Amino acid sequence: MAFSVDFYAEERKNIRKTALLVTLFYIMMAAFGLIIDFAFGMLPIFTAVFLSVATIQFLVSIYSGKKMVLRSLKARPYNPKNFEEKQLKNILDELTISAGLSKPPELYVIDNDEVINAFATGFKREDAVVCVTTGLLKTLDREETSGVIGHELSHIVNRDILIMTMISALIGAVVIIQIFAARTLINYLRFGGFARGRRKSKKDNTGMAILVFLATVAGLATLFSFLGKLSLFAVSRTREYFADARAVELTRNPAGLASALRKIALISKKLPTANTATAHLFIADPLKRKVNEKSSAFASLFSTHPPIYKRIATLENRQPEEVRKELQL
């Protein structure tokens, strides 16, 4: 490949990043609460509420995040009586040993023959999951499947799943506040605010104060959520390149992963059960959004994955534009 990586340094860096991320998030949520408390003279009500929401979301992601992701994507445990799934389990077991993991991750399957994709999730290495679509099992050969499984194991070994789970959970806490404030604001405007405003004296500023308060909470939550998602996208893009590199180290075969990515780009369809909350977990965007295949500065801000033609070009040590023309992207 065109670049080399110190994977052990990357793993340590991910752990430090996660600790820093959680600390910064709690500081952000406290600041968020304090701004509202001081602005409306309610200290420490909202500071305590926002920190509580962050803690609950944090704990839920640790203990139930994996199950929630698998349930939302309609994934099921692999069937050892199915020949293709048994072969996949053998590949996973072999690469688990190469990756130095103490035990293989759990194996799950999404029943969709038109989609070629895979992801890894979980909070720790010991409770990690690798999940693939039946389309991947039916379309990729052993070398290509090994490349994809090596990529997903790399996310587990590098502890990418830890940092991605944390970012998703923390953004989720802000989104909960954003949705609550926005819905309360809309309901107040529809059913309470204007009606009371017409009946009461102009000197009564209660209605306006409530409107300003709800709009402030919804606005700040939207801003923090937006900034959080941009950071999630940036982390996700970077981790894909590192996982590709480590997959090559595990399989000693860059051609297998490159060929798998080529089939994903040309054949795979959109996964109906995926959404924006889970798309960043997959080896390639399951929503097939065009922004992920563009390389402009604007597209780079909002894409969850690096352009697939660039990943193939790196694996094959070729010029990106040459691969892009070949794929007609």
Automatic annotation (TrEMBL):
The active site is at E152. GO terms for cellular component: plasma membrane. Keywords: Cell membrane, Hydrolase, Membrane, Metal-binding, Metalloprotease, Protease, Transmembrane, Transmembrane helix, Zinc. This is Protease HtpX homolog. Binds 1 zinc ion per subunit. Its cofactor is Zn(2+). The chain crosses the membrane at residues 20-39, 45-64, 161-186, 206-227. Zn(2+) binds at H151, H155, E240. InterPro entries: HtpX_protease, Pept_M48_protease_HtpX, Peptidase_M48. The keyword Membrane applies. The gene is htpX. It is a multi-pass membrane protein. GO terms for biological process: proteolysis. One of its GO terms (molecular function) is metalloendopeptidase activity. The keyword Protease applies. Pfam families: Peptidase_M48. Gene3D superfamilies: Metalloproteases ('zincins'), catalytic domain. Its main location: membrane. Residues 84-318 form the Peptidase M48 domain. It is found in: Cell membrane. HAMAP family: Pept_M48_protease_HtpX (MF_00188). Belongs to the peptidase M48B family. Its EC number is 3.4.24.-. CDD domains: M48B_Htpx_like. PANTHER family: PROTEASE HTPX, PROTEASE HTPX HOMOLOG.
